[in-house]
Design a protein that fits this description.
three-stranded antiparallel beta sheet, alpha/beta, 12 helices, 2 domains, single chain, Aspartate Aminotransferase, domain 1, globular, 12 strands
C-alpha cells in the first residue's frame, strides 16, 4: 500500500485518544475508575431541545441537503438574536455567521483556510491541541504563546518578536480557558485587537466555555471589544451550553471576509449539518437561559474538589468559569508521572498538562464533568482516593 501523507508525521497522537485507551484498559481490568479526564457534560440535553429535534426530524424538508449559503437560516438568525441578548453584539446572519459541524471543525479548518507554508500561527501554550495540530497540518509554523500563572494565564503579546508577528496570519485565543480555567476581560481583548491591527493578524477566539460560569461571574465575548469584528471571529457551539456535545453543531461569527473564507473551504469539504439538528439548536438558542441546575452541580463539584485538594496541601485556585481545575503537581514530579500515580494508585483519571504544550508541564487537568456523580459524591471519593494514594 502507498504510504500515508507525510503531513501526518507532523502531529503527535491525539491526546484524548491516548486517555481513552488508558481508561479502557483500566475498565477492562475491572477497576472502579473515577474519570476526571475528558471534559464532556455528563448531564442530559434538556428535554425541550430533544422535543424540538423530534418535531424537526418529522419535517421532510430537513431530510434534504441544506443548500443555504452558510447554514440553516433559522439557526443563523437564532445565533444573531442570542448574541444580541447575551452580549449586546449585533451580527448580520447573512454575512457574519457560518454554521459549523461543532466548534472543533471550525477551529481546525480556519488554519487550512489561511495558512500557507512559512506562515505563522500564534498558539496558546498550554492550549487545546486542535490549534497547534491543524496549523502544522496546513503547512504553517507554530509560535507558542506561554500562559503563565503569574499573568493569570494570559499571553504576554509584548514577548512576541516583531519578525514573528510580521509573519503571523492567525492568533488563537480561548477564554474561559481550556485547560487552565482562566478568564479574560475586555481590557485584555482590547490589547489583542490593537496587536492584531498593528500586525494585520486574524484573531480566532474559541468561546466554547462562555456559558459555564460560577459565583455571579459572566464571561465576556471577544466581539464585545471595540474593533474586534474588524480583526477576527469568535467560534462557539451549543455543546457545553446545552449539554449537546454529541450533536456537533456550532458557528463562527465576526469579520465577513474571515467568515467567507472559512465557508469557502467548508463548502468543498462538507454538506452542512442535518437540518433537524440545526433547527433544534436554533430552538435552544431562542429559548436560552443559563442552565442553573447543571451550573449548580458543577459549582458543588468544584468546591468539593478544590477544597479537598487544598486540604491536602495543593496550591490550587477555584475556576471562575469552565469546568476545569488546573492542578500543580507535587514538587519533583512530572505531569505524566503524577497522572500515572493517580491512575494506578487511586483509580482516578486526570490529564497530564504537558499534553497541552511545553508550558503545561507541572500541572494536570481535572474535569468537573463526572459520569455517575449525582451530588458530588464521586468527586469526594476521588479526593479521598488521592489522599490515600499520596499517604
Amino acid at each position: 500500500m502507498p504510504a500515508p501523507s507525510s503531513r501526518l508525521d507532523r502531529i503527535p497522537p491525539y491526546l484524548f485518544g491516548e486517555i481513552a485507551r488508558l481508561k479502557a484498559e483500566a475498565i477492562a481490568a475491572g477497576r472502579d475508575l473515577i474519570d476526571l479526564g475528558i471534559g464532556d457534560p455528563d448531564q442530559p440535553t434538556p428535554e425541550p431541545i430533544i422535543a424540538a429535534l423530534c418535531e424537526a426530524a418529522h419535517d421532510p424538508e430537513t431530510h434534504r441537503y441544506d443548500e443555504s449559503p452558510a447554514g440553516w437560516p433559522a439557526f443563523l438568525a437564532a445565533v444573531s438574536r442570542w448574541y444580541g441578548r447575551r452580549f449586546g453584539v449585533s451580527l448580520d446572519p447573512e454575512s457574519e455567521i457560518v454554521l459549523l459541524i461543532g466548534s472543533k471543525e471550525g477551529l481546525a479548518h480556519l488554519a487550512w483556510a489561511y495558512l500557507d507554508p512559512g506562515d505563522v500561527a500564534l498558539v496558546p501554550d498550554p492550549g487545546y491541541t486542535v490549534y497547534r495540530v491543524n496549523s502544522l497540518m496546513a503547512g504553517g509554523e507554530v509560535y507558542p504563546m506561554p500562559l503563565r500563572r503569574e499573568r493569570g494565564f494570559l499571553p504576554d503579546l509584548s514577548e512576541i518578536p516583531t519578525d514573528v508577528a510580521r509573519r503571523a496570519k492567525l492568533l488563537y485565543l480561548n477564554y474561559p480557558n481550556n485547560p487552565t480555567g482562566a478568564v479574560a476581560d475586555l481590557d485584555f481583548f482590547a490589547e489583542v485587537v490593537a496587536f492584531a491591527r498593528q500586525h494585520d493578524i486574524v484573531v480566532c477566539h474559541d468561546a466554547a466555555y462562555s456559558e459555564v460560569y460560577y459565583d455571579g461571574y459572566r464571561p465576556p465575548s471577544f466581539l464585545q471589544a471595540p474593533g474586534a469584528k474588524e480583526v477576527g471571529i469568535e467560534i462557539h457551539s451549543v455543546s457545553k451550553t446545552f449539554n449537546m456535545t454529541g450533536w456537533r453543531v456550532g458557528w463562527a461569527a465576526g469579520h465577513p471576509e474571515v467568515v467567507r473564507a472559512l465557508n469557502r473551504l467548508k463548502s468543498n469539504l462538507d454538506s452542512k449539518q442535518f437540518g433537524a439538528v440545526s433547527q433544534a439548536a436554533a430552538h435552544a438558542l431562542d429559548t436560552w437561559e443559563a442552565d442553573r441546575p447543571t451550573l449548580r452541580l458543577y459549582q458543588k463539584r468544584r468546591d468539593i474538589l478544590v477544597g479537598g485538594l487544598r486540604a491536602l496541601g495543593f496550591d490550587v485556585e477555584p475556576p471562575k468559569a469552565s469546568f476545569y481545575v488546573w492542578l500543580p503537581v507535587p514538587a519533583g514530579t512530572t505531569s505524566a508521572e503524577f497522572a500515572k500515580q493517580l491512575l494506578v494508585a487511586a483509580g482516578v483519571l486526570v490529564i497530564p498538562g504537558n499534553g497541552y504544550g511545553e508550558h503545561g508541564e507541572g500541572y494536570v487537568r481535572l474535569s468537573l464533568t463526572v459520569a455517575g456523580d449525582r451530588d458530588g459524591e464521586r468527586v469526594a471519593e476521588a479526593v479521598e482516593r488521592i489522599r490515600r494514594a499520596l499517604a
